[in-house]
Specification:
The complex is a heterodimer. By secondary structure, chain A is of the alpha/beta class. Chain A is built from 5 helices and 16 strands. Chain B is α/β, with parallel strands linked by helices. Classes of the chains: A alpha/beta, B alpha/beta.
Amino acid sequence: MNDLAPDRKYTNAAIPVGGVDPHPDKPTGEFLTDVVSNDWVNGEYKLLVVRAAERALTAYAGQFYHLLCPSPDGAEVWMRRPMSIYKVDKAAGCLEFLYKCEGRGTQGMATLEAGDTFNIAGPLGVGFTLDPAWKNIVVLGRGVGLATLAPLSQLAAEKGVGVTAVLSARRSDLVMSQDLFEELGAATVTVVDEDGSSAVENVEEILEKLIADGKADAFFTCGSSRLLKLMQNLGKKHDVPGQVAMEQIMVCGIGACYVCMRTFEINGEKTLKRVCREGPVFNMQEAVGW
Amino acid sequence: MVDLSVKIGDLTFQNPIQPASGAFSWEYNDVIDLNRLGALVAKTICREPRLGNPTPRMAETEAGIIQSIGLPGKGIDYFLENIVPEYAKFEPPLVVSVSSESAEDFAELARELSVPDVDVIECNISCPTRNTTGGNFAMQEDHTKMVMEGIRAATDKPVWAKLSPNAGDLVSVALAAEEAGADALVIANTFLSLKIRTDNFRPALGNKFGGMVSPALKPIVLRMVYQVAKEVNIPVIGVGGVTKAEDVVEYMLAGAHAVGIGYAGFRNPSALTTIIDDLETWCDERGIEKVTDLIGAVKDDDMEMDPLVAASHGV
C-alpha cells in the first residue's frame, strides 16, 4: 500500500463470482466479473464473455450494464460505458457483450483477456416489452444496434412470437448477429451499402411487404436515425406500434445526474427523458431522431 | 469500534459521508442501502421547472470530467409534493440544495422549503455556469452576504452555504457567509472549465462551459478547506475528489467535519457505502475512538526545517 491507493484488505463493494451479496433484493448491483473470453468476431467487433454473480444474470433484452473499462492507452478512462446486453447464459452463469472497438472505452475493453476481472454495474434501465397480442414482429437494426436487438429474438422465441430481422450494415462481412437470429428461428433479410440494398427506399419496400403479409404486429429498431424515421412513418401509416433503443453519453447510469437526456415528443409536446432510467427502450413514436 | 458520528450545528449525522448535491438521487437505493449514509442530499431545486442545458452535458478530459447540467428539475411545488416524500422513506437527514437567480426569491424558496421532512437547506449560491449577480453569488463577498442574510431571516432550518472555488478570495467569501448567519459551509462547487474538440473546433459541451469533477481537484479543494477552516467558527463540509477513506481522513485533518462525494459515486455506484466501511476499518486499525478526533488534527505547527534552510529563512 502507498498513500495514493487504499489498502487492499479494505472492502471492495463490487460483488465477485461466488461472493456474498449484501443486497440480494436490489434490482441493480456493482459486480466484479471474471473474463471467460474476448474474441474478435470480424475485423471490427469483439464478443466479451464474463462469468458473473447470480444477481447480475437477471437482465432482459434491451437492458444495459455500465462498464468500468480498462484504459487502452495508459491514461484514465474516467466514466463507465453503457452497453446493452447481447446474451444472458444462465446455465453457464455468463453475460455476453458484442461491441465495436471504436472509442477509448471499447478499445480498453478489447484489451481484456481470459482470467482478468471486469467491474460492471447493472442490470439497468427499461428494456423491450412484448405485448401478448403480437404474433409476429419485425426488428430492423444497423451496425452495432443489432447487438442490442439480438436478445429480443430470444425473448420472442420463448414467447412463441415470430421474428423477421432486417439486418443493415456497410458490408456483408459486418452484418452482426445473423447466426443468433437464425438459430432462434427468425427469418433474416440482409441489406448492405456495398450493393445499395440498404437504401431507405429499398428497406421501405421490404417493410411494406412484411406489413402486407401480416408479419409486422410491432416494430423494433436500434442504431440508425434514418431507419427510425422510416419505421415511425410506416408505423403511423399502418398503425404499427414500435419500440426503439436509444444511446446517449452517460455518467451515473442510475438516474441521478441527468447527463443522458434525449428529446421526445409526446402528444405534440417536446420533453426530455433520461436514457438510463426512462429508457434506453422507448415508444418509437415518441422518439425524436438524433 | 469507532464512533463515526459528527455534529454539524445541532444536527447529528451517523457518519461524515454525504453525497454531493447534483450527483445523487434516491434512485441510488437500487444499488446501495441509503440508510447507511450520513445524509441524503437532493439535487438542486429552483422555483420553476427547468429542462437544463443542451447536450452533450459531459465530456471526458485527461484528468477528469467536465459537465454542465443546468439545474434541471420540476420546480419547488413538484419537489415538495413528490420528491421530499421519496427521501422521507429513509432515515438519514435530508439536505435540500436550492438555487435562484435573485436574493428575494432565494429567501422565499428557503421559507417554502422549511417543512418537517427537510432537515437542512443547502444554498447553492455557486452554480459555476450562472453569473455573479444571477445565481453565482459566491464569487463575491458582498453578494454572498446579501443573499445569505435574506435566507437566514427567512428560515429557522440550518442553512449551509455552498461556496465557489472560482472566487478570487474564498476566505473572505466564507467569512461573509458566516457573518450572514450560515450554519456551515460546503467547500466547494465545481471548477469552471472548457474543452474544445480539435476534430471540429467546437466546444465539447452543449453549454460551452462546464464544471470540472475529478480526484485531481482534491489537493486544491483540500487547501481551500484548510484555509477556510482556520478562519471560521462554523463547520466546513469538504467536497472535491474524494474517492477513498483516506481522502475523508485527509479532509477531516484539514478541518472538515464531513465530506461530500460526487465523482466516486458515478464511477462506482457502491462507493459511498464502501468508503464508510473503509473509514471505520481505518479508524479501528489505528485505535481512533471518535472520528471527530481527526477534525483539524493536521500536525503543521511544528514543521521541522533543515538547519541550513532555517538559517536562510532567518530562523
